[in-house]
Amino acid sequence: MPVKLRAKNIFKLFNEAEGDTVARLKRGESKEEIFRATGATVGINDVSFDVHEGEIFVIMGLSGSGKSTLVRTLNGLIAPTSGEIWVDEDDVASCGAERLREVRRRKIAMVFQHFALFPHKTVADNVAFGLKVKGMPRAERRAAALKALAQVGLEAHADSYPSQLSGGMQQRVGLARGLATGPEILLMDEPFGALDPLIRREMQDELVVLQKKLKKTIIFITHDLNEALLLGDRIAIMKDGAFVQVGTAQDIVANPADDYVRAFVANIDRSRVFSAADVALKPASVPIDATLAQAFQAMKDAGSGAAHVLRDGEVAGIVTWRGISEAGPTQTVQDVMVTDAPVVDESALLHEMYDAAQTGLPVGVTDGDGTLVGVVPPEAIFAQLAAGEPEAAPTTEDAPSALPAPS
Q: Class assignment of domain 3-268?
């Protein structure tokens, strides 16, 4: 995907008097050491990153880590001390005020934590406010506002006032206002932080669904790692103004960069981070008209105790070496296969595979077209949950000696 926003070597320093703070940072002095020595506060410390078009890029950190300062530099609300912030062909860190206003009007919208709604305006007028600033005629902005409200499920509340809505509904209004202007980039600064936990989770799920349709470029700020893992295509973990680690949820949970990140992910529910594709092994498979000897050989080649049976490329069942060993001399793969073989989509999370794993059979993993692309032995699921290496699946070497020889 093309890069939509690129930040290069961003520094933001507050109350700097001596002018040598950047040099001190480059020498390895900490944020606290610099503050004690000079009185300068390090907001952002040499941060560089790319955000790709259509990506949700989450910046996660504790209070004081610099994440909110960073997101405000991305649309010019705070000018960085040095560095570049490119939105397509515009460097918002150095362009003039008029050009910056144009970039904000055409390309960037911001969704805030505390809704920032006008209590005296209707929901529709709140959503249309940015369009009014742009000079759009009243009828057109009303239509655009209704469209945006429909995207978040609030079209019926267009003529209500914010005080008549729940907190979750008010946050949807804030999101609709961001969407109404047709931005290419959404900056979301802890947008669900003020919501109750249940409503917050609902909003997270709704954002995931909405993003699948709209494919906006979203930079999402949060202090909640579970929220970051749920939403982020990639996640940046921030500490003392700097990025400690950037990667997918799976990268960060499986390979934390240091003790700081390791402490964050120690109690994460891995079953909601890793998917079938993350733990899948190469599958053993045979066509439905295969002989038992051919099925045996497929298992042997894959080092597996079972092989999936395919009809026109899709899973029709599964045959095990035990089933083969107990088969009569004239029986075929179709005679001995288990027809209700467990199968999941490659995107299924591990916690969604528990029922399939309880069969004791290897779980087939298919792509969007139903094609078998992998297999997950039940023990591989639990090994991943325990952060261990998957145990080897039973092999044909464990099979009884009565197993038919390959023909």
A: alpha beta
- Specify whether domain 276-398 bears CATH 3.90.960.10: no
DSSP string covering 243-295? EEEEE-HHHHHHS-SSHHHHHHHTT--GGGT-BHHHH-BPPPEEETT--HHHH
Name the DSSP letter for residue 194: T
Q: Are 277 and 374 in contact (CB under 8 A)?
A: yes
**Domain assignments of the chain as residue spans, ordered by start:** 3-268, 276-398
Instruction: Give one DSSP letter per residue of 10-37, joined into a string.
Output: EEEEES--SS-HHHHHHTT--HHHHHHH
The CA angle 232-183-5, to the nearest 5 degrees, is 55
Instruction: Give tens-digit pLDDT for 142-188.
Output: 999 999 999 998 999 999 999 999 888 998 898 999 899 889 999 99
Residue 406 has pLDDT above 80, yes or no: no
Contact in structure between 116 and 173 (CB atoms under 8 Å): no
Mean pLDDT of 283-306: 92
Least confident of 7-11, 110-114, 188-192: 110-114
pLDDT of residue 387: 63
Q: For residue 316, give both structure tokens.
A: 């029709």
- Give me the phi and psi of 373, to 5 degrees please: -120, -10
Average pLDDT over residues 299-315: 91
Q: How far apart are CA 80 and CA 100, in angstroms?
A: 14
Cα separation, 27 vs 102, in Å, equals: 39
Residue 203: CB partners within 8 Å, gap ≥ 6?
A: 168, 171, 172, 191, 192, 195
The answer, yes or no, to whether residue 377 has pLDDT greater than 70, is: yes
pLDDT at 114 over 90: no
Structural element, H or E, at residue 211: helix 197-214
User: Is the dihedral angle over the CA atoms 221, 224, 225, 229 positive or is it negative?
Assistant: negative
